[in-house]
Amino acid sequence: MTKRTYISRFHYGQEDISELENASLKVLHIFEKTKRMLSQYVPDSLWLAASGTSPESAESVSHSGADAVDIFQKWVKAPGGWKFIGYETDRFHASTGQNIGRTGRFLQMIIWSLYEKIVMLHPFLGSEPFFDGEELDVIANYFVPTYISAVPLVEQGKAFKTIQAGIVLYQEHIQAPAVIMQSDRGLLEGNWMTGVNLDAKGFAGIRPYLKVPSGERAYMEADII
């Protein structure tokens, strides 16, 4: 049985907010850089089959400009620090009705694969890697290992979950804090998640929520101390 801690509010320190603001924008930069690269080199048919959308649609999910789409990143405060789990947007693919967040999960797998290959092979390569040193540090510190096969996670003895991204992917399971808290609906049990809002101007604050066992979300106000 999961041991849950009772909390009255979602408390965050100023250092948490500062780190989330800085990290969320760096994570966004890595996603956009990867999307630009893939839109140039991946055939439309392969991209559509794997992610459920076209390269043009994925590229249009930009953080700036008149057509900017608000982004909701999902973070967990794990024992080892903050971890980025994924992101969602309000934009849907017209023909399938799939949220563009599915593309984000596909990109997470690509980013982690590139990261591991660069770390392993860069000493033997003469050219500059796709991700620079700072970007590699961001991926190492905040991204969660995500693969097209469960084998690497099984070999490392890590718990994992399956996620849908047009194809089935396997992501290391990061346990969010298990809590009980009082709400307008009475006592709620669930896992403490932290949403980070990004809009055309950049970081737009945090939006914590309790993910209850049914999968629903109960959004709460953050208490920043």
CA-based gyration radius: 18 Å
Structural class, please? alpha+beta
Tally of separate domains: 1
- Low-pLDDT runs of 5+ residues are 59-67, 91-98
Name the helicity range: 25-40%
Please indicate the percent range of residues in DSSP E strands (runs of 2 or more).
25-35%
For the record, give the distance between the C-alpha atoms at the N and C termini, rounded to a whole number.
32 Å
Number of helices: 6
Mean pLDDT comes to: 84
Largest sheet: 7 strands, mixed
Extended strand count: 12
Element-by-element helix/strand order: EEHHHEEHHEHEEEEEEE
Shape designation: globular
Task: Explain the layout of strands and helices.
Layout: E1 5-7, E2 10-12, H1 14-41, H2 44-51, H3 55-60, E3 71-78, E4 81-89, H4 101-121, H5 133-142, E5 146-147, H6 151-155, E6 160-164, E7 168-172, E8 178-183, E9 186-199, E10 202-211, E11 217-219, E12 222-224
Parallel strand pairs: 1-8, 2-12
Antiparallel strand pairs: 3-4, 3-9, 5-7, 6-7, 8-9, 9-10, 10-11
Helix pairs in contact: 1-4, 1-5
Tell me what you see in this structure:
With 225 residues, the protein is of the alpha+beta class. The chain has one domain (5-42, 68-224). 35% of the residues lie in helices and 32% in strands. The chain has six helices and twelve strands. Strands 1, 3, 4, 8, 9, 10 and 11 form a seven-stranded mixed beta sheet that branches. Strand 3 (71-78) and strand 4 form a beta hairpin. Helix 1 (14-41) crosses helix 4. The chain is globular. It starts with a strand and ends with a strand.
